[in-house]
Every structure is written in structure tokens, then in C-alpha cells.
Amino acid sequence: MRGDQSTPVTVQPVTIVSGLPRSGTSMMMKMLAAGGIAPLTDELRAADKDNPKGYFEFERVKQLDKGDVAWLPQARGKAVKIISFLLQYLPPDETYKVIFLRRNLEEILASQRKMIIHRGEDPDQMDDEAVAAMFTRHIELVEQWLRRRPNVETLYIHYTDVMNEPAGQIARITRFLDQPLDEAAMTQVVDPHLYRNRQVAAAA
């Protein structure tokens, strides 16, 4: 009598969109959704003037540092947005494909200042120089962490490149995720009019 030769079940990886706040993670989530990857979101955070096309957040993600990881199996085969500060709390018993958004720090800080103003708060409470130094060191540590994790693959995407050459960057994403995506629909998501804090290069 032959033994059980059933094919083992392959667990799909969790696709994670990450980066610093205001680095373009919401846009990337919308692009992936348009491409055919379902987002894991509870739609609790509504769109506003800072993110007019939505945030694509899942509230329980914010409890990763408290040990709330029971929801992660729901994210297999889907995309979930996780801020870079929380990546270190991901458990090692899942596999992850991380699309990490990079953006010029000057643009991130300008965007954060506008968000603070929209909240009716004082933007001068933010020390740009101190925040920039903190972000720079944080990114160094995150990249080291990502390199050391055998269950994590990472693709770095720069926000400016997406805005300037979306087709090329979307092709990179398709190759990285190794699955068919609707690249034309993803391209339609990229809206240059929302690139409102563009860093202008200084004249020579």
C-alpha cells in the first residue's frame, strides 16, 4: 500500500508595504490593489486632505509591538501596510515580501509639517534637524534588520522614481512579487498632482 503522497500546502507570503511616515506607502497600497493584490484593511481611517485617496490601514497592525500577531494569517496572499518602526516585531514563522518606500527626507518633513498644520497644531513644535537625524539612524537599523532575516525579501522603491517613471518601477514590483499584475491599472493610480512636496533641485 502506497503512503500518503499528497502535495504539501504552500503558505503564501505576506506582502508588506513599509517605509517612513509620508513616504508614499498609501499610494503603493492603492497601486497593488489596482494590480490585483487584495489589501488587508479595515477602512477605519477615512481619506482626508493629506491622503485624499485613502490610507489603506489595518488598525491591529499598530499593536504589533504589544504582541498582537494573531491576524497575520489573514494577510497571507494579501498586502498590508506596516510602518517601518514596527517591522522588527514581525514573528519569524511567516514569510514576508517587503516593498520598502524611500523618499527624500526634506519631502517627508515638509509633508509632515503640512499634516500638523491641517490638524490645527503648531508645526514649529517639530525640530526638523532632530527628526531627520532620527529618521536616518532608524532607516540604517531597519535595513540591517531586513538583511538579517532569512524569511524576508525586500524591494526598495523610491517615491520620486514611481512618480517620474511608473512603468519601470511597476515592472520591478511585478518581478519581485513573481505574480501577474495589472500593470496598466497600477500606472493609472500614480497621480503626479499629488506630488505636492517635491524637492526642487538647486540651480548649479
What is the H/E order? EHEEHHEHHH
Instruction: Categorize the overall geometry.
Output: globular
Strand order of the largest sheet: 2-1-3-4
Here the CATH topology equals Rossmann fold
Helix content: 25-40%
* Gyration radius, rounded: 18 Å
Name the CATH architecture. 3-Layer(aba) Sandwich
The largest sheet is:
4 strands, parallel
Summed over residues and divided by their number, the pLDDT gives a mean of 84
The poorly predicted ranges are 200-204
- Strand residue content: 5-15%
Number of domains: 1
How many helices? 6
CATH superfamily: P-loop containing nucleotide triphosphate hydrolases
* Separation of the first and last Cα atoms: 79 Å
Structure description:
This protein has about 200 residues and is an alpha/beta fold. The chain has a single domain (about 15-190), classed as Rossmann fold (3-Layer(aba) Sandwich). The chain is about 35% helix and about 10% strand. It contains six helices and four strands, in the order E-H-E-E-H-H-E-H-H-H. It has helices at about 25-35, 105-120, 130-150, 160-165, 165-175, 185-190; strands spanning about 15-20, 80, 95-100, 150-160. Strands 2-1-3-4 form a four-stranded parallel β-sheet, sandwiched between helices. Strand 1, helix 1 (about 25-35) and strand 2 form a beta-alpha-beta unit. Helix 5 crosses helix 6. The radius of gyration is 18 Å and the shape is globular.
